[in-house]
Specification:
7-stranded mixed β-sheet; 18 helices; alpha/beta; Rossmann fold; Glycerol-3-phosphate (1)-acyltransferase; 5-stranded parallel β-sheet; binds 2'-deoxycytidine-5'-monophosphate; 2 domains
């Protein structure tokens, strides 16, 4: 199922909002909503009823009595008021001329805003207007403000009017547009303005396709994984602390070489894997260096509580059965963004405590992530809790961080499939060297 998005597209009249919002809706599978049509709808109703559109006290009772019904047609929201669909009449000159006054009435705005918010139940929306990002959906991350110089906007609006058979002069259109801009931005209730966090696009020099591409590009950018969005620091630190205390009490937990992990920039922590204890043992030590994204098999996420917890501490779910491109992409993006990613090159826990062959995907991830690697040897975890031990034993567990394998060293192995295998092997060799040194008593700090 695709992600539910509310795309708010605001801007002055004839800035290209409608065309772009329709295009975005089509490309992203959203329902298109023209919020201006709602204000025009209220105005149309008042004109139908012969209500003075400058008098809020006359407008309000008629508005509150009116019954609105909504439908989705050709992926766009349409409505009827008291059983009549205004349709094209919303574009009539009389409506056009009265709508700014009606839209400036706080009670009308409250009425329309409530209706617009309810449309969320239809699913993803591409909604255009003046206050969508600032008032209607202020919490959506997808906020856009389209603008263009008045001359360009007047030119577009004039062409639209001519196409509809109207005969207004270009100069007259420009002046009327400027008057509406002035009214829309100076009114007290929800004036036209760039919403906080909105992405401004000047459409003067672009065609529709160009603007749509900028807008979709921004959405893709916003949806890229970000370390600070993926890890909840409170949960992360608390988890590390709890793991650290338990491991200290039960397994005489010791850590060496933590200073080998660079404090900033993308980096991979690669450890041997023989026990359920390895992720907590490496994770607990990360509290002393930097927050780290672990890659873990996606089946762990199936249990609701466990899944929620793993998400909170920034774990990347990985489908081990098939080459999980999505997980790889996430990890690569995080590395390029300067995050720390931890993984187990052997993929799964060792059956007998001996090192296994690295998985081919590891070299790919290291090469594409363009990050250096810190090899890590976890000692004693197999004896403490192996696949076959049937529970935790009080065997000491030690984590040893080795010297950095630099990007230059990784690059020197070449590129392509063969290089990916060599990268994996190099990492496992470095882990094996750490084991030897540790067992020879040569690791002291
Ligand atoms: O976008 P449009 O020209 O159809 O808008 C009609 C009027 O409604 C215009 O005066 C601006 C106003 N409007 C508003 O105040 N807030 C919105 N979200 C949309 C339109």
């Amino acid at each position: 199922m695709s992600k539910k998005r509310i795309i708010a597209i605001d801007g002055p009249a004839a800035s290209g909002k409608s065309t772009v919002a329709r295009e975005a809706a089509k490309r992203l599978g959203c329902v298109y909503v023209d919020s201006g049509a709602f204000y025009r709808g209220v105005t149309w109703k008042m004109l139908q009823e012969g209500v003075n559109t400058k008098n809020p006290l006359a407008v309000l009772p008629v508005l509150l009595k009116s019954k609105w019904k909504f439908d989705v047609r050709d992926r766009a929201v349409v409505f009827s008021i008291d059983g009549v669909e205004p349709g094209e009449a919303l574009r009539d000159k009389a409506v056009r001329e009265a709508v700014s006054d009606v839209a400036a009435m706080p009670a009308v705005r409250a009425f329309v805003v409530a209706k617009l918010r309810k449309l969320k139940k239809l699913g993803s929306l591409a909604m255009e207007g003046r206050d969508i990002g600032s008032v209607v959906f202020p919490n959506t991350p997808y906020k856009f403000y389209l603008d263009a110089n008045p001359e360009k906007r007047a030119e577009r609006r004039h062409a639209e009017l001519i196409a509809r058979g109207e005969t207004e002069e270009a100069q007259e259109v420009l002046e009327s547009l400027k008057r509406r801009d002035e009214k829309d931005s100076s009114r007290k209730a929800a004036p036209l303005k760039v919403a906080d966090g909105a992405y401004v696009i000047d459409t003067s020099e672009y065609d529709v396709d160009g603007v749509a591409r900028v807008l979709l590009g921004r959405i893709t950018e916003l949806e890229k994984p970000r370390s600070d969005k993926m890890i909840n620091p409170i949960w992360y630190r608390m988890t590390c602390k709890v793991f650290g205390i338990c491991l200290k009490v039960l397994n005489k937990y010791t850590v060496y070489g933590i200073q080998n992990v660079p404090k900033t920039g993308g980096v991979i922590i690669a450890s041997n894997h023989a026990s359920y204890l390895d992720p907590p043992a490496v994770g607990a030590s990360s509290r002393r260096m930097r927050m780290t994204h672990f890659m873990a098999r996606d089946t762990l996420f199936r249990k609701k509580l466990m899944g929620a917890f793993l998400h909170k501490v920034g774990v990347i779910p990985l489908d081990r059965e098939k080459g999980d491109l999505k997980a790889m992409k996430t990890a690569i993006h995080l590395l390029k963004d300067g995050a720390c990613v931890a993984l187990f090159p052997e993929g799964t826990r060792s059956e007998d405590g001996e090192f296994q062959k690295p998985k081919p995907g590891i070299g790919f991830l290291v090469a594409k992530g363009e990050a250096p690697v810190v090899p890590v040897y976890v000692h004693g975890s197999y004896e403490a809790w192996s696949k076959h031990s049937g529970g935790l034993k009080r065997n000491p567990v030690t984590v040893i961080y080795g010297k950095l394998i630099t990007r230059e060293e990784i690059r020197s192995l070449g590129s392509g499939r063969e290089a990916y295998l060599l990268i994996g092997e190099l990492i496992m060799e470095r882990i094996a060297e750490l084991k030897e040194k540790f067992e020879a008593g040569q690791i002291t700090e």
